[in-house]
């Protein structure tokens, strides 16, 4: 089994992505971002599926060329079954089914959320792999989950958001400050220049390991409105401090729940994934937690944290080894049982 080549396709949201894996190593990883959505301040599903339709063939072609392999060498095709936008998922799954049929090779369906977590098992120089069991914190524009991972196919969600995802909390706060979409990276940038204790925002009271971020957005909105009444230039004069304080609050919300999860499970290996794990404050806080609490933390290579097909490919490889294949009647699922 040492010569497994998986072509992986990801199209769950607004990125069209394809990757080729040779066993657990990535040999090509191509992503076409859809910048069209930025002018609308969020992903427009109808536009996303149309862009996938345009991008999918060139992206897959580029992934195969970069990998420098013939499609006849492929062992299987893996694709994202869900969760995601239905119109977007359908483009990837239809293409995957057709190609698997044409090449007479197995078809593998992958859960996007499993992939964000198992991306840590891509063989990459300088990056350690976690050992089972570990805790995974998946944070992006669409997800906020704490997952207990006992094996490749044995995971349990132990906490998740009850409303907005953490990326949305960043983006919506940024919007209130007049920053362009997606504002998360800009909040991060300005936060590095500001005082995280300048302003205090109340943290939500959510029982157990679940999260809530919609209250924070409202609190920020009222805070800005009130201060702008007194000083119309409030945002301009305090931008860095406001961003630092918002980011500090979001990190505290995440860390409070992680600490509780560690306490409840006794597991001290923490792996993070999703676009928000690019955040410098979150990275620094997790590094500090290694010394402070004795945790071992895992942060994957940046290109495997945001939506990508390499993470679909590593799950595809594991499923290939376990012969977990689908027939062509497999359907896309906007919501999917974990
Ligand atoms: O994983 P991702 O690329 O796409 C999905 O949502 O699935 O995550 C995008 C999210 C956006 O909300 C974006 O603002 C946020 O990740 N993000 C950040 C940073 N970089 C990306 N949020 C805070 N700090 C960052 N440095
Ligand atoms: Zn994602």
From TrEMBL:
<feature type="binding site">
    <location>
        <begin position="138"/>
        <end position="142"/>
    </location>
    <ligand>
        <name>substrate</name>
    </ligand>
</feature>
<keyword id="KW-0819">tRNA processing</keyword>
<dbReference type="InterPro" id="IPR017860">
    <property type="entry name" value="Peptidase_M22_CS"/>
</dbReference>
<comment type="function">
    <text>Required for the formation of a threonylcarbamoyl group on adenosine at position 37 (t(6)A37) in tRNAs that read codons beginning with adenine. Is involved in the transfer of the threonylcarbamoyl moiety of threonylcarbamoyl-AMP (TC-AMP) to the N6 group of A37, together with TsaE and TsaB. TsaD likely plays a direct catalytic role in this reaction.</text>
</comment>
<dbReference type="InterPro" id="IPR022450">
    <property type="entry name" value="TsaD"/>
</dbReference>
<dbReference type="InterPro" id="IPR017861">
    <property type="entry name" value="KAE1/TsaD"/>
</dbReference>
<keyword id="KW-0808">Transferase</keyword>
<feature type="binding site">
    <location>
        <position position="307"/>
    </location>
    <ligand>
        <name>Fe cation</name>
    </ligand>
</feature>
<keyword id="KW-0479">Metal-binding</keyword>
<feature type="binding site">
    <location>
        <position position="279"/>
    </location>
    <ligand>
        <name>substrate</name>
    </ligand>
</feature>
<feature type="binding site">
    <location>
        <position position="116"/>
    </location>
    <ligand>
        <name>Fe cation</name>
    </ligand>
</feature>
<feature type="domain" description="Gcp-like">
    <location>
        <begin position="25"/>
        <end position="313"/>
    </location>
</feature>
<feature type="binding site">
    <location>
        <position position="188"/>
    </location>
    <ligand>
        <name>substrate</name>
    </ligand>
</feature>
<protein>
    <recommendedName>
        <fullName>tRNA N6-adenosine threonylcarbamoyltransferase</fullName>
        <ecNumber>2.3.1.234</ecNumber>
    </recommendedName>
</protein>
<dbReference type="InterPro" id="IPR000905">
    <property type="entry name" value="Gcp-like_dom"/>
</dbReference>
<keyword id="KW-0408">Iron</keyword>
<dbReference type="Pfam" id="PF00814">
    <property type="entry name" value="TsaD"/>
</dbReference>
<feature type="binding site">
    <location>
        <position position="184"/>
    </location>
    <ligand>
        <name>substrate</name>
    </ligand>
</feature>
<keyword id="KW-0963">Cytoplasm</keyword>
<dbReference type="InterPro" id="IPR043129">
    <property type="entry name" value="ATPase_NBD"/>
</dbReference>
<keyword id="KW-0012">Acyltransferase</keyword>
<feature type="binding site">
    <location>
        <position position="171"/>
    </location>
    <ligand>
        <name>substrate</name>
    </ligand>
</feature>
<comment type="similarity">
    <text>Belongs to the KAE1 / TsaD family.</text>
</comment>
<feature type="binding site">
    <location>
        <position position="112"/>
    </location>
    <ligand>
        <name>Fe cation</name>
    </ligand>
</feature>
């Amino acid at each position: 089994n040492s010569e497994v080549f998986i072509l992986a396709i990801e199209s769950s949201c607004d990125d069209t992505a394809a990757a080729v894996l040779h066993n657990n190593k990535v040999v090509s990883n191509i992503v076409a971002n859809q910048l069209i959505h930025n002018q609308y301040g969020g992903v427009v599903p109808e536009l996303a599926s149309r862009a996938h339709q345009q991008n999918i063939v060139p992206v897959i072609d580029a992934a195969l060329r970069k990998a420098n392999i013939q499609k006849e060498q492929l062992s299987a095709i893996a694709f994202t079954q869900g969760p995601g936008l239905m119109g977007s998922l359908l483009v990837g799954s239809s293409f995957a089914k057709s190609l698997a049929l044409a090449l007479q090779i197995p078809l593998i369906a992958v859960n996007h959320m499993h992939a964000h977590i198992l991306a840590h098992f891509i063989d990459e120089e300088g990056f350690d792999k976690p050992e089972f069991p570990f805790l995974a914190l998946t944070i992006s524009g669409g997800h906020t989950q704490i997952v207990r991972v006992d094996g490749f196919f044995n995971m349990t969600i132990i906490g998740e958001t009850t409303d907005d995802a953490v990326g949305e909390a960043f983006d919506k706060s940024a919007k209130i400050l007049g920053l362009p979409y997606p504002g998360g990276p800009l909040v991060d940038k300005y936060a590095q220049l500001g005082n995280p204790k300048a302003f205090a925002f109340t943290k939500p009271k959510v029982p157990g390991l679940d999260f809530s971020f919609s209250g924070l957005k409202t609190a920020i909105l009222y805070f800005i409105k009130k201060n702008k009444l007194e000083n119309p230039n409030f945002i301009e004069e305090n931008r860095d401090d406001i961003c630092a304080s918002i980011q500090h609050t979001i990190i505290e919300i995440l860390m409070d729940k992680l600490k509780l999860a560690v306490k409840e499970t006794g597991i001290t290996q923490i792996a993070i994934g999703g676009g928000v794990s690019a955040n410098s404050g979150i990275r620094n806080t997790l590094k500090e937690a290694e010394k402070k609490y004795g945790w071992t933390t895992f942060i994957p290579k940046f290109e495997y944290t945001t939506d990508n097909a390499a993470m679909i490919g590593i799950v595809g490889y594991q499923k290939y080894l376990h012969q977990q294949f689908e027939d062509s009647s497999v359907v896309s699922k906007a919501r999917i049982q974990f």
